[in-house]
Amino acid sequence: MEFGPRALGNRSILADPRYPEMQQRVNLKIKFRESFRPFAPAILKEEAASYFDCPVCSDYMLLTAEIRDCYKKELPPGYADLEITEKRRIAKSDYPSITHVDYSSRLQTVDRETNPLFWSLLTAFKEQTGCPMLINTSFNVRGEPIVCSPADAFRCFMTTDMDYLVMENIIFDKKQCKI
To answer: Which of 67, 69, 79, 89 is the most interior residue, by most CB within 10 Å?
Structure first.
């Protein structure tokens, strides 16, 4: 069990930040909360400076940093005149599910020494996709505490639109699970 104000990769919902629809999917179909709520990236510590303007590490997801210019998307004409709800729907970067309307993200840098399991997962994801980060949000739904037991985790998994559940060395695939 982990303690602190943020999910740090041990009891987390993880998702691919490259897809614009991922933010809405996780918010509406998994967390059951407002679709506009932003997500934080967990990124390999050694890759963070290449993607974000963050001069220090952010091991506990307590700092915000702006995404580097090379990953920002050009805003459409008239963007400044749009309502905030319309601005949120426009992808701001190559990683739209973790980029806020002001190009910031509240990031977690994952260190090989202090969190070797999560670091290994991010490394494997980077090897498969070229992306060194994942959306990282607390493993709970609106109004509920973060899962605390395997039974809590399985119940949350089965009652949401999550695809997989990983506990220790066990992987549950939603397509294979029946209640």
So the answer is: 67
Is residue 151 domain-resident?
no
Mean per-residue pLDDT of the chain? 92
Identify whether 175 is part of a domain: no
Q: For residues 105 and 67, is the Cβ–Cβ distance under 8 A?
A: yes
**Structural domain of 83:** 12-146
**Residue 177 above 80 pLDDT?**
no
* 111 found inside a domain: yes
Contacting residues for 40 by C-beta, under 8 A, at least 6 apart: 6, 61, 98, 105, 106, 107, 108, 135, 136, 137
pTM score, whole prediction: 0.91
For the cut 70, the answer to whether the pLDDT of residue 5 exceeds it is no
